[in-house]
Automatic annotation (TrEMBL):
Source organism superkingdom: Bacteria
Name of the protein in question: Putative glucose-6-phosphate 1-epimerase
Family of this protein: Belongs to the glucose-6-phosphate 1-epimerase family.
E.C. number: 5.1.3.15
Membrane-spanning residues: none
Record-linked InterPro entries: Aldose_1/G6P_1-epimerase, G6P_1-epimerase, Gal_mutarotase_sf_dom, GH-type_carb-bd
Species name: Amphritea pacifica
Enzyme's top EC category: isomerase
Keywords: Isomerase
Pfam families: Aldose_epim
Catalytic activity: alpha-D-glucose 6-phosphate = beta-D-glucose 6-phosphate
Length: 300
């Protein structure tokens, strides 16, 4: 398969578009592109996934692979929806990692867009789990992007659910970034076999990093500082007690749609509900929402 540069070409294609809403086919993926005074937003109907968000006058906030696997495979980058399980299935490891939502076809149920921002409601075209309703709300308010994933159990049985909004944030160089806001939180280090630890006041990316952090719901925002691009991203979450921080470092050599040529260009900070720090049970009649937002702060 031809792996032509994906994000750069996508950005170039979008730059030539007029203001408004456009449909776009790319590597087999059906995309919807919005251009407005507030900036640019690209949605994929495969996975209900935000692929690109660029506020007016800014670099993109989200990273997207230049080597997509092509439809119907999941897309690496943007904000994948990991649901109804996060990472490996706890009982059936042969099932797809990160669940089925990110490779399902979604639809846009409603949208409202104006010069100040927009709001989009998306849902899977078909049921992903019997009796379970899933909806994604995407909101742009000026230079801020927010997502809220809502699960409602309309079945007659409780259901075990873990999930994440797996945000890939674009950076100049991961080695020139640091993360603040997780100091003294308990964490599990997946690289070290889930070894428990405590988060430092400033996290730097000097090797493979894969941390599940216990961060209380509605706690202070995480700040991603990019010293190369001289910008700060403010990242918030609600509805989950876990934050996942990931960059594969040298392990990217074995990840086909990342590779060593791209690994330094993103850092993942993910709002999550995990089996380690969250209640997995969604009771009959219960509704649960996991949400995250990102906005640009002045530097330093």
């Amino acid at each position: 398969m031809d792996h032509a540069p994906f994000q750069d070409s996508l950005e170039i294609t979008i730059s030539g578009m007029a203001m408004g809403c456009h449909s776009l086919q790319w590597s087999g993926y059906e995309l919807v592109v919005y251009k407005a005074l507030w900036g640019e937003l690209v949605l994929s109907l495969l996975g209900g996934q935000v692929l690109l968000f660029r506020p007016a006058g800014e670099k993109p906030l989200l990273w997207l692979t230049e080597k997509p696997a092509g439809a119907p495979a999941a897309i690496r980058g943007g904000i994948p929806v990991c649901w109804p399980w996060f990472a490996e299935h706890p009982e059936k490891p042969e099932l797809p990692k990160h669940g089925v939502a990110r490779t399902a076809r979604w639809q846009i149920d409603d949208r409202t867009v104006d010069d100040a921002g927009g709001r989009w409601l998306m849902s899977p075209e078909g049921s992903l789990c019997d009796g379970i309703q899933l909806q994604l709300e995407i909101t742009v308010t000026g230079a801020e992007l927010s997502l809220a994933l809502t699960t409602t159990n309309e079945s007659d049985q409780p259901m075990a659910v873990t999930q994440a909004l797996h945000s890939y944030f674009a950076v100049s160089d991961s080695r020139e970034t640091e993360i603040l806001g997780l100091a003294d939180c308990r964490c599990l280090d997946k690289v070290q076999g889930m070894q428990p630890g405590v988060m430092p006041s400033s996290l730097r990316f000097t090797a493979e990093t894969d941390l599940v952090v216990e961060q209380a719901d509605n706690s202070e925002a995480v700040v991603l500082i990019d010293h190369g691009w001289k910008r700060r991203l403010r990242i918030t979450k609600r509805g989950g007690g876990s934050t996942v921080v990931w960059n594969p470092g040298p392990a990217a050599a074995n990840i086909g749609d990342v590779g060593m040529d791209q690994v330094a260009r993103f850092v993942c900070v993910e709002a999550a509900r995990t089996r380690f720090f969250d209640d997995q049970t969604l009771a009959v009649g219960e509704t649960q929402t996991l949400a995250t937002s990102v906005s640009v702060l002045p530097y330093p």
